[in-house]
Amino acid sequence: MASSQANLEKMQLRQSYRNLWHTDLPNAIQADFPYCCLSLWCGPCVSYMLRKRALYNDMSRYTCCAGYMPCSGKCGESKCPEFCLATEVFLCFGNSVASTRFLLQDEFNIQTTKCDNCIIGFMFCLQQVACIFSIVAAIVGSEELSEASQILSCLSDMVYCSVCACMQTQHKVEMDKRDGKFGPQPMQVPPMQQMSRIDQPVPPPAGYAPQPAYGQ
Fold it and tell me: Where is this chain compositionally biased, Low complexity type (predicted)?
């Protein structure tokens, strides 16, 4: 219980992040349309490449789900990180995308905008509504409810795939910025302790200029 409370407090501290994504979710398609299409049709492969790139291609840094899940560090990642990452992106695709997102946010002190939060929240709510409709339709046995649940499930799947594709494009663009594709100086690989996640309340602002407080 004490550990959970400590983790919750550290997550709340991350609400003070001030850096912004180079592109937000609604503009991710415009930022890199070909990559967004690739993320849509081959999401797990893109997730694999992005996680490896987020770790600066150093798989000795890899931990399952970037250290955010209870299984992290308990899956034998150190023995075969490439295989464990491949298993993660195919069996836990949603967690793999979210973990890479948290990894970048913690490393570069990036906040998620209200618009992005609304999009992500809508995706989750739609999935829950579709699940509830499916359960009710199965219990009641109504053809109308069954058709409605199928439509909602199809819609929620479309939204889920689209949002994940935009997220991964957003991550790719952010790492393009990190690696100097939008400027003259690419970033160097940070020390190992800077890659820590849940036990690091406020990460260093590596690669980003200090941001003034809001209202100044």
Answer: 184-195
